[in-house]
Structure formats: structure tokens, C-alpha cells
Amino acid sequence: MDGDRPRRTPRMTHRISGGALSLPAVPRDLDPRLLRAFAAVAEELHFTRAAARLYTAQQALSRDIRRLERELGAELFVRTTRQVVLTPEAERLLPYVRRVLAAHDELDAARSSREKRPLLVDVGARVGTGYEVLRAARAEAPDIEFVARFHSGLTGAAAEILAGRLDVSFGRVAGLDPAVLARLGHLPVRFERMAVLLPASHPLAAREEVPLDALKGETLYAAAGNPSTAEWTDLATRLLAGRGIRLADPFPEIDGAEEFVRIVGRRGWSVLASTEFIEMPGMVLRPIVRPVPLSPVSLVWSRGLRHPGLRVLREVADRSSRQFGWLERSAGAWLPDEDARLMLPAC
């Protein structure tokens, strides 16, 4: 009887270069998110890396893959404890999925290119490299609406960019997850000198510059515990390693200058900062020397972004870097090798 026969997946045939390619019938209303999940796993051949690339939980990614397999009526991956392998059906489907996703990306880029849409730019604070570039861009292109955001930390800003809630930010790209950085465009802009923010009564506050070794025994706050600024905490950890300088324990994100001054003063912390820093009542900012540690700053955006404001920001940042020597490094300056490599193209 017909009811006893095993059901077969409907098939359709595409002809490519004179040959026939048989594929499962794809539902017309297939969720693009499921296709992105499939493409990520197919390219990474690793569920954990694919989940990180998509900014999602591995459990959620696995659910999406199972749902896609149900809708297609085909198994897409053979999973073992040691590897993930594409099935023949998945290998045949992958080129078509890439074309569909490319079309979606082009549509998103077209929507982003509308000149009337404001460009959302995170500059961290009302001082520093990002803010200087933004002010110059506004002066150069007064017809473009640049809307400033003031959130600290490139790690948090990168997540906002990939989620479509932010367009541009500034910061240290070497501190980002490689899977995240792969989806971002970045332009090296400046090496900011690192500094220490001290209570005005501190014995080292009388010096014009503070040797790094003079901070031995100090506790420095470097935003540990704030996931949005993980790239800065990582840079601080690298700088202070083996020097007898303690990094302050993780602490919840501090919001606003007034609260920052209150908490830092109450706990007796000194603060690792850059010379481009907001004024803090009762505290003094002193550059660090011997060595001179550098904080690398890049302009960062989503690779799919098309907006005239981005073009202006890139032009202004590149011109400023060359005009003011922002990417010059003095002999004896300190910079991690990975940072130096990622900042090299524009040097």
C-alpha cells in the first residue's frame, strides 16, 4: 500500500553549465537566520566557533540547524565528538545559500546608504581621538548628520555594530574576538600615550611623568569586570604583568564622571588611562614613561556599511593621522606584537 512506502523528500533540479544538480525543495518563506546559521557552521565546521561568530549561544545555534534540517527534509551535518562534516546535500545547497545571504547583505547595505539616515558614532567620551575625528568630520560635512554616542569600550560597541544598533566606533581592535573582528572594517588612526590618573595628594602626583616601575605596589583600576571594555583590561593586564603592580578587582561598570570620581576616591585607586582623558576633580593625569606604553586606536565599522558619513570619517581620520603624526612610535615605546601588526597597514 502507498501508506506503507517510505516518504521521499521532494526534489527540484537546477541546471548549471549543462549539468543537472538535484537539491531538496526549499520553502519559499525560509528564515534567513536559519540560512546564516547553516552557512556559519558549514564554513567553520565547528559549532562553538560558529556560535561565537553569530553572537549566539551554541544551544540556540543547534536548534536552528535542526529546524532547518526539518524544513528541508534533509540532514546537513554529520556530527561526531571529534569533527563536523557536511553531508552531500549540504555541499550542494551551500552555494545557493551564499547567494541568498549575499542578496540580503546587499539589501541591508542599500538601506544603510540612504543619505538622510543619521550615522551613529560611538566616541567613548567628549575628549580623545574619536571625538576629535568626529568634530572634524562634522565641520567638513555639515549636511551629514553624525549622532554621537558616549559608551566606553570597543568590545561592547562591536557587539552593538554587529547587531545593527550602532554604525561606527573607535578603540583597540587587537582585543576583539577574531571571529568578531573578521566581520568589521577597521582603519588604524592613532597611538595614544598611556597615563596614570592619581589622587592630587598622591606622592607621585608632584612628578610631570611617572616611570612605570614607580607604580610598584600600587593598585590600578583598569575597568576589570566591565565586559564592554574587555579590550582595555586585556591591554592593562599585558602591561602590568610581572611588575608588582596590582590590577583592581572586578567591579561593576561605573556610569558617569561624578560616580567615577566618588568610587575611585572611596577605594583609594589610581587609574590606568590615556593622556586623552576627561578632567577629574581632585585627581591629576600623568604620562607613564620608561617605557612609554601606547594605546592603539582604530576606526571601526561593519563591513557591510555604506554611508557617506563613513567615507568622511575615514578620510578625516587618515588625514589627521598623517598630518599630526598620530601613528608615529618613538624608540622604546611599549606595544604588544598583535597590536603592532594590526596597526601596521597605515603606519
Characterization of this structure:
By secondary structure, this protein is of the alpha/beta class. It has 11 helices and 15 strands. The protein has helices at residues 32-44, 47-53, 58-72, 88-112, 129-140, 154-162, 178-181, 230-240, 257-267, 308-324, 337-343, and strands at 11-16, 19-24, 77-79, 84-86, 119-122, 146-149, 168-171, 184-199, 210-211, 219-221, 246-247, 270-274, 283-289, 292-302, 333-334. Strands 7, 8, 9, 10, 11, 12, 13, 14 and 15 form a 9-stranded mixed sheet that branches. A two-stranded antiparallel ribbon has the order 1-2. Strand 1 and strand 2 form a beta hairpin. Helix 1 crosses helix 2, helix 1 (32-44) packs across helix 3 (58-72) and helix 1 crosses helix 4. Residues 1-23 have low confidence and may be disordered.
Per-chain topology:
Blueprint: E1 11-16, E2 19-24, H1 32-44, H2 47-53, H3 58-72, E3 77-79, E4 84-86, H4 88-112, E5 119-122, H5 129-140, E6 146-149, H6 154-162, E7 168-171, H7 178-181, E8 184-199, E9 210-211, E10 219-221, H8 230-240, E11 246-247, H9 257-267, E12 270-274, E13 283-289, E14 292-302, H10 308-324, E15 333-334, H11 337-343
